[in-house]
Every structure is written in structure tokens, then in C-alpha cells.
Amino acid sequence: MIIRILLILSYVVSCIRLCVKPWYYFRLNAPYFNESKGLFSKLDIDRLIPNQWRVEQWVDDGTREPTEFPVFVKPEWGQNSRGISRADNLMQIQQLRLQRKASNMRYLVQEAARGAIEFEIFTIANHQDLAKHAVLSVTQVNNTSSDKFPINGIYNKTTQYHDITPKLSREQLEKISQHASAIGKFKISRLGVRANSIAALVAGDFEVIEINLFVPMPLVLLCQQRRTIDNIRFVFNAMYALANVTKQIHKNQPHKAIFFRKLGLMRQHTIKENEVGNESH
Predict the structure, then answer these.
(1) At how many degrees (to 10) do helices 2-17 and 228-247 cross?
(2) Beta strand pairing call for 85-87 and 107-111
(3) Which part of the chain is CATH 3.30.470?
(4) I want to staple 14 with a disulfide (CB 3.0 to 4.6 A). Which of 61, 174, 243, 252 is the partner?
(5) Are 167 and 185 a contacting pair, CB within 8 Å?
């Protein structure tokens, strides 16, 4: 919570310094927001991913069953691993469908990625060239459980983060930056990918499992090996870069009510989670 507050305050201060309206933050990735659905649709964003990096996923409407397990069932709008469940067999898929029978939220089934190691790539675009990045960090995600296919996330106590950015050369970071740009010209993003090694990640041999465009948390700030002073510097530099990108947003860019639409969806999902929890007791 402290980190999030620091990020917000730093961004607001940077916007004030640059004479930028802080609420324009919600316009940063607006071109990718599906206004008819009121969300950053995982299906829409999935279509941006080049075929060699894409993990197959589909709407879980009961007309198609997985041929291999495990699979992951996730809400179309979700982020930070909220609402994701894993199904190891057909019976578990059917149970998940029954639990959300009364829900009007659309869920997706995603096949498991093949890579052995999970990485999170956080980016902020360069305000002078949106195809490049002013901020890029790479975090390796570890899990202390014996689970081969864990659902990692900031709310999972067995998930640990390790900053590997300092280990990467300038050339390697440039390669990863190019990979991220090939997916989309996002002004701020966090990409979750799986690869068998750091070398494979750099070489482009990976699969994308998640793209967060709403309020992506730079997971590098949760790495225990980093010093507090390094995190503070990262926050200030990253948020100043983000404010610079925000300044480039054209005044005539179509306005979309992203904040309130997303807030409403999150509230609906929280209510549904509570209802499911009460039914299971």
C-alpha cells in the first residue's frame, strides 16, 4: 500500500511540474479500452500478440472443452491474478462453471504456457519515441511451493520476485524492449511471460500469459534484494517519465470513462467472490 501511495504522489507531483493534468493517466492506454464492454478485454489484447508468443485462449461458454490440462480460467477483465482459477481436469472446469452460473461476467480458458520460468516485464514508453521505452525492468517470478503450475501474484504468499534487470546487458534490454514493442505501443504496461531461461527470453523464445494495461504495478518494487533508496529512485524516475508520456496525449483524443467502468467491474467481481465464498461455507 505504501508503494502504491508513493507511486501516485510521485506521479501527481511530476504532472504538476510538467503542467500536465494527472487524470489524463486514464487516457494513456485508452485506444486499447473496449468501450462497449467497459474493460480492457483480454481477448482484444490477445489478438495483438504475434502468433509465436500467443497462448491459446477462448471464451468459456461451455461449447468447447480443453484437450490438455491444466488450464487457467480467468475473468475477461481481471488483473493482478484476481479471479483466476486453475483446472486440472474436466470435472474442475465444470465445478467452476457452476460456481459462477448466476454471474454475467465473461470468463476465458487459457492453456498453460510451456516455459519453466515466469518473468514480468514492466515498461513505460519514451515520450519522444513511443516505439521505445524510457523505463524497462525485468523481474523473475519464483514460487516457494512445490506446485508446477502456480497462480503467481501479489496476493499469493508463496510468490517471490527477483530483480534481474542489473544482470542484463544494454543489448539484452534492447532486445526485450523490441519484443515488448512488437506486441503493442503501450504507454505503460506489464507483460507476464514464460520462458525456459533468461537467454530464451532475450532470444524471443517465450509465451505471453498476461498483459496488464490498467494500473500495472512495477513488481521490481516488491523484490526483497533491492534497497529502499533504489526503490525510491525508481519510483521518482519512472513517474516523471510517465508524466512526460502523459503530456504527449492529444487534447482531441476521444475520452473514455475508463476509471468508473473498471471500478464498477471490480466491485461486481468482489461481490461475486463473496457470494461464492458464502455458498462454500
Answers:
(1) 40
(2) unpaired
(3) 1-54+114-249
(4) 243
(5) no
